[in-house]
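Hello,

Our lab assistant flagged a job as stuck in the queue for most of the afternoon. It eventually completed. Since we weren't sure the result was trustworthy after the delay, we are filing this so someone can double-check. Below is the sequence as submitted and the structure that was eventually returned. Let us know if re-running is recommended.
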Amino acid sequence: MHACWYQQDLIRSPRLKQEEIEMNQQDDASTSSQIVDPYFTDQHGDDLNDDDEQDVQDPLERKRTAHSIAEQKRRDAIKKGFEDLQTLLPTLRNSSNAGQKHSKAIILQRAVEYLQYLTEDRRKLHEQLDQFRKEVMALEIMKTNYEQIARVHNQPQQESGITDEEQFDAFKSIMDTQFQSFDSSVNLSNFEALSGSIINWLESSWKPEMMQNALANSLRAMNEPDHFKTNRPS
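-- returned structure --
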């Protein structure tokens, strides 16, 4: 019996081995299906992580880009401002090196100097304007005075029938009155007192209206009955 079982087992052993091999292959296939490919995991996992990091970094990158653009615009505006300022300054525009590019420090220094020059020039112009206004006022006053004198002298003279002798007597009377005024008003002690007092006397005693009054008084005195008797030499 044992010999028969052994023979039967030998007959079946190749078949059993084949079945075992097939079962082992199935187990390996099922096991391999459960194992994750490390290459696949690493590749696609990195892609997912990159997408997450990109989502986080995009706002920061946009901020950096916007800041860089704004900074560049600011620098361009400053550069253009200095270029325009250089073209406006006469000391840099009219110099022999007009086409040369100057530093910002030199441009600012020239700008300050030019502003100081304009301020001083404006002050001088205001002083000249005030002086011209005073001169105009003085000329207007002189014009008014001369117009008054002209009106007095241009008044129509009526025929009075006064002789030359009577005119001389009137002139003599006026000069006597003026000499008395001169003698009482002018100080002859020294040149300074003389010059000051004689100017005051001329301005106060030789006004047109005062001369008119002196002439009228002289003519009234001439019309007195005994005027020529007392004033003419015998």
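-- support follow-up --
The delay was a queue issue, not a problem with the job. The result is valid. Helices lie at 2-34, 38-88, 90-93, 104-153, 164-185, 191-205, 208-222, 227-231. Residues 60-132 form a domain with the MYOD Basic-Helix-Loop-Helix Domain, subunit B fold (CATH 4.10.280.10).
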